[in-house]
């Protein structure tokens, strides 16, 4: 528990401490760096040593028992616990007077041989790091710590190997124990064999007929309580549990939610189809020469359609379901929900056409829509906010559930952010640059992230069928995200003409974001405590788990990118592209998919094919890794190339293979969206197939004088 308290403090204090240093003060030539490195290694070794100590203590305790007189009593206890087959084998052995099998000796030999293998691995001496490299910069150190997470996993794996070796040693002792037991059984007197073991074998061989309680008559389900499926299901995929239809849902609200989610799925497929084409153009830049399809026009079409179309509509649709559920009342106005859907769809459609025609807001990232288009989106948000607040105001529950805190705050912040970004009075010079950083980062953190976390706080406990681990951690994450995230926009413009103190404030705020991220991740993972076994039977929980993992790694990566030393390398490279996909796709999209797969079957009573849900999950995850990891690696090399004064074209040539991986990963991601759209179709479509049983009943009710064709003759 002490470690859980110290770790968040380290994540918070270390960035602030590194920020106050000179650019080159933190390197492996300094004592502080070696002190931190030794502290981390010592902590890892301490944890491993404690775990191994417990195992060795148990092993030593068992070994000491071999030397005591009480061991003979244990052998007698083993004898009394023999089952029928073992007793029969023992009796046959006694009759034949055969020698004991010597195979145990070989097993003991191999077990003792393999136990010494991990020791040779531990004895290797690590190489000393090069003190003259760029690894001495403070921001680089934090990034290396994040990259060292797989190395920590390797240490854990090594600990498991050593633990397995200890288990082999324990098995060796058990084999020796088995040999002693065999010797003890060999020397048992015949009287004890006849009086004790033979009687025990007769008792063990007795079995019931298994119809003592039910009788011999066949079972009859006169009440219709049993529902036996005659379809065995697909043998190539694991059968998952079905979602139960949710009773007492307003049909009008269900229809509204499904329309939101259906439109969101359309914009996901549309936007990522554009993105797929852009990824191909990286490999084949001369694919077309049409102005409307140029990279500069299509790129904002891709980002804005997935931002304001896919993610925004998906979040608002799920919010329309959650707000009345946790408030225990009906939605204030279904009509306002439809109006909001209309305005947001109109904004994305008109905005996409304008961007392809070259009509934009002057190049501000994620701010490319001109203000009349964004006004339509803002009206949709305002209508949704009114609907949510009016619903919460008449709730029958005493408290406001945490999901409503997150979702209502997200809409309020987004309206404020949009007004700030589009009011023209300060849109000149440095003012526009500062506002752009504020808008761009708050759009991600205070709209998408804040709203999505509110959704997860409802659906994750629902899918696990247990309450959220800690309400207090959720409130801590809520307020600290509001405190720190609103400060960090200008870390996108480090080394610019923006005042140095404002850049430093953004960097400090980025370091402080470790608090809500660690709090939220801990809350979600601890909610899984005692319910990890449910993952194998669910097709929604894997999506939640991946989203939680990327929530931690992607957010901490953003903190690492904020430092001046790392910003110097990664800014203006494809690293930011990889990071944005790691967060917007790995966090937001995976969470939305998890919630959609959880709620739609409850509204429609129809499940998506499990094999296509699995294809969606694995293609999206593998595609994301293929997309981001090569880009991050290649962009780091590219940044170092620029620092060494190499020409720009050298960086372009360097990135060529990594852009190919980007296209491959993007293709897998796009294919996963095709599967998702198909799954949505299967869950939402109306069935036109005639139900024979229902039709027969309806005919009987319609015509009480119905005569069977067989009787008419």
Automatic annotation (TrEMBL):
<dbReference type="Pfam" id="PF00115">
    <property type="entry name" value="COX1"/>
</dbReference>
<keyword id="KW-0813">Transport</keyword>
<dbReference type="InterPro" id="IPR000883">
    <property type="entry name" value="Cyt_C_Oxase_1"/>
</dbReference>
<feature type="transmembrane region" description="Helical">
    <location>
        <begin position="659"/>
        <end position="678"/>
    </location>
</feature>
<dbReference type="GO" id="GO:0022904">
    <property type="term" value="P:respiratory electron transport chain"/>
</dbReference>
<feature type="transmembrane region" description="Helical">
    <location>
        <begin position="336"/>
        <end position="358"/>
    </location>
</feature>
<feature type="transmembrane region" description="Helical">
    <location>
        <begin position="256"/>
        <end position="275"/>
    </location>
</feature>
<feature type="transmembrane region" description="Helical">
    <location>
        <begin position="307"/>
        <end position="324"/>
    </location>
</feature>
<dbReference type="GO" id="GO:0015990">
    <property type="term" value="P:electron transport coupled proton transport"/>
</dbReference>
<dbReference type="GO" id="GO:0016020">
    <property type="term" value="C:membrane"/>
</dbReference>
<feature type="transmembrane region" description="Helical">
    <location>
        <begin position="401"/>
        <end position="424"/>
    </location>
</feature>
<feature type="signal peptide">
    <location>
        <begin position="1"/>
        <end position="18"/>
    </location>
</feature>
<feature type="transmembrane region" description="Helical">
    <location>
        <begin position="138"/>
        <end position="160"/>
    </location>
</feature>
<feature type="transmembrane region" description="Helical">
    <location>
        <begin position="102"/>
        <end position="123"/>
    </location>
</feature>
<feature type="transmembrane region" description="Helical">
    <location>
        <begin position="444"/>
        <end position="461"/>
    </location>
</feature>
<keyword id="KW-0679">Respiratory chain</keyword>
<dbReference type="InterPro" id="IPR023616">
    <property type="entry name" value="Cyt_c_oxase-like_su1_dom"/>
</dbReference>
<keyword id="KW-0249">Electron transport</keyword>
<feature type="domain" description="Cytochrome oxidase subunit I profile">
    <location>
        <begin position="251"/>
        <end position="713"/>
    </location>
</feature>
<feature type="transmembrane region" description="Helical">
    <location>
        <begin position="612"/>
        <end position="633"/>
    </location>
</feature>
<dbReference type="GO" id="GO:0009060">
    <property type="term" value="P:aerobic respiration"/>
</dbReference>
<keyword id="KW-0732">Signal</keyword>
<feature type="transmembrane region" description="Helical">
    <location>
        <begin position="538"/>
        <end position="558"/>
    </location>
</feature>
<keyword id="KW-0472">Membrane</keyword>
<dbReference type="InterPro" id="IPR036927">
    <property type="entry name" value="Cyt_c_oxase-like_su1_sf"/>
</dbReference>
<feature type="transmembrane region" description="Helical">
    <location>
        <begin position="468"/>
        <end position="488"/>
    </location>
</feature>
<dbReference type="GO" id="GO:0004129">
    <property type="term" value="F:cytochrome-c oxidase activity"/>
</dbReference>
<feature type="transmembrane region" description="Helical">
    <location>
        <begin position="34"/>
        <end position="52"/>
    </location>
</feature>
<feature type="transmembrane region" description="Helical">
    <location>
        <begin position="500"/>
        <end position="526"/>
    </location>
</feature>
<feature type="transmembrane region" description="Helical">
    <location>
        <begin position="578"/>
        <end position="600"/>
    </location>
</feature>
<feature type="transmembrane region" description="Helical">
    <location>
        <begin position="370"/>
        <end position="389"/>
    </location>
</feature>
<protein>
    <submittedName>
        <fullName>Cytochrome c oxidase cbb3-type subunit 1</fullName>
    </submittedName>
</protein>
<keyword id="KW-0812">Transmembrane</keyword>
<dbReference type="GO" id="GO:0020037">
    <property type="term" value="F:heme binding"/>
</dbReference>
<keyword id="KW-1133">Transmembrane helix</keyword>
